[in-house]
Amino acid sequence: MTTRKIAIYGKGGIGKSTTTSNLSAALAQRGCKVMQIGCDPKADSTKNLVGGDRIPTVLDQLRAKGNKLTLEDVVFPGWNGVLCVEAGGPTPGVGCAGRGIITAFQKLQELHAFDIYQPDVVLYDVLGDVVCGGFAMPIRDGYAREVYIVSSGEMMSLYAASNIATAIRNFGSRGYAKLKGVILNSKNIPDEEAIVRKALEEIGTDLTCIIPRSTAIQEAEAEGKTVFQAGTRPEMMQVYSDLADRILAAGEGEYT
Hints:
By secondary structure, the protein is of the alpha/beta class. Helices cover 41% and strands 18% of the residues. The chain is built from ten helices and eight strands. An eight-stranded mixed beta sheet has the order 3-4-2-5-1-6-7-8, sandwiched between helices. Helix 1 packs across helix 10 (234-250). The N and C termini lie close together (10 Å). The model has no long low-confidence stretch (mean pLDDT 90).
C-alpha cells in the first residue's frame, strides 16, 4: 500500500491538533498504521494520544544527542499504535520556528523513518497562521500530497484558510500537494455553516466535514485522551470516524 501523506493546516487555537489526533485515532481503528507529526513549536499535537504527556521533540533530542540520535529517541507509540512525532522548535528567543521544522524533517528523512515504519497514513499537523519557510515545507517539498484546512466561521480563521489555499495553489503548479477540503470545527456562532460555505466558494474548495461543538472533546482532553480513548460519547466518535472515511475515500486514485 502506498503511504497517504496528508497535511492538516489551520490557524492557531482553531482545534487543528484536536482534530488531527482524533482523526489519527479514527484511522487507527480502521486498521491503518498511522504516523502523526506535530509541526508546531508548542509540540502538543500528539499529547492526547500519549495520555496527556508531551513527548521529546526531534529538535530537543537532536540538540541533546547530535549524531547519536536514533528513531527510538523521536518516534513514540501512542494509543492503538499511532506513531507520534513532534518536530519541536528552537530555543526561545533564538532561531526560527520554520527553520526548526525543516531541520526536523530532514533528520527524519536521514533516519529513513518512513521506510522503516512504513505507515499507511502520515498526518502532518501544521500551524497555518503564516505559510512561509518551514511551515510550508509539507506542501512545498512534496512531503504531503493532500491538504485539509481546519476552520471555524470566525473571520480570522477563514482569512488564514484563504492564505493557506493560496499557498497551496502556488505550489500546486509544481505537482505538489492538493487542497482537498475544509473541516469546519464549529464555534456555534450564528449562521456559521452558511458563512463558511460562502467563503469556500471564494476559496475554491469544498466542505469535507462539520465537527459540532461538544463538551465531550474538552472532557476527553482533560483526561489526556481522544474521544475514542474516553469512549463515553459515541456520537462524537462517529463524527471523527465519518471524517476518516471521507478522507480515505477522497484519496482513492491519488497515488496511482
